[in-house]
Write a structure and sequence with these properties.
heterodimer; A: 117 residues; alpha+beta; 3 helices; globular; B: 156 residues; 2 domains; three-stranded antiparallel beta sheet; 7 strands
Chain lengths: 117, 156
């Protein structure tokens, strides 16, 4: 999505981390705020940080407002990389009471002019 | 090319190529993290303790520039209300068609499944192969050393 609008991929500073969860977290440092289920708005980027190999973090994009909005995200739960990119579940279900930690508002991760390649 | 010798528990020292130097640790090939002071391998690094130790030194999002409505329209046409809407319209045909990728090591590749490269994605998706579909998306990945396996979420 970022590349489609001409923006660079957040990078950690070396080719092992380009586009990685650490890169997103640090790149938008100062632009993300504490996650609040009811404060989610359309276009928000939801973050969970990278902790370790078993808990590698996650990002998702809210497709509507509030806890019952669907999320655009990608994960692997069955089969060969399936469901992959999907909008099958809500913010509330995906959060499961604890998961997401930060929100980058839509105007801070994609709706701004800067960082064009 | 700088190298560093890492100390593995109960093993001989192993030499790694240093990709990135931080004040207290090195980032080496395969995403291996090594303490600078004694060459100790950082096993299962904790985000709070290690990975964000030098967050102030990492690349940051720059300040936004001023943009008029006319300038935006010139770039994204009149039907797109925002960059987000334009990107959402582009990615929507990929929903349900782009599997989560598994990549087994090496640098973050500019091709499948990561496509970690800054250039425009293909504008049209009809008839695209699964690889091309993946190539249209931005990687959202937590890259780490994981017994040779890396998980990828080709999305953003």
């Amino acid at each position: 999505m970022l590349r489609f609008v001409g923006k660079r991929v957040p990078t950690y500073g070396n080719p092992y981390y380009d586009g990685g969860m650490r890169a997103y977290w640090s790149y938008f440092d100062g632009y993300h705020e504490r996650f609040n289920l009811d404060a989610v708005r359309r276009g928000d980027l939801l973050l969970r940080h990278y902790s370790n190999e078993q808990n590698q973090g996650h990002v998702a994009v809210a497709l509507g407002d509030g806890a019952d909005a669907l999320l655009l995200q990608s994960y692997w739960s069955h089969g060969d990389g399936l469901p992959g990119l999907n909008k099958l579940i809500t913010v509330r279900t995906s959060h499961a009471g604890y998961y997401y930690e930060r929100i980058v508002r839509v105007n801070n991760w994609i709706n701004y002019l800067s960082d064009e390649f | 090319m700088r190298t560093v010798e890492a100390v593995f528990p109960d093993q001989e020292e192993v030499e790694f190529e240093v990709l990135q130097e931080f004040p207290t640790f090195f980032v080496c090939e395969d995403g291996t993290l090594i303490e600078r002071d004694d060459g100790t391998l950082i096993v299962n690094p904790d985000a709070g303790e290690i990975l964000y130790r030098h967050i102030e030194l990492l690349p940051k999002r720059p300040q936004a520039e001023q943009e008029s409505e006319e300038e935006f329209t010139e770039t994204f046409a009149t039907e797109a209300a925002s960059r987000f809407d334009a990107a959402l319209e582009w990615i929507s045909p990929l929903v349900g068609k782009m599997p989560y990728g598994l990549w087994t090591g090496g640098i973050v590749p500019p091709g499948s499944p990561a496509w970690a490269i800054n250039r425009p994605p293909p504008p049209k998706l009809s008839g695209a192969s699964s690889d091309l579909l993946r190539g249209c998306a931005q990687p959202d990945v937590a890259v780490c050393r994981q017994e040779g396996a890396h998980l990828w979420q080709p999305l953003l």
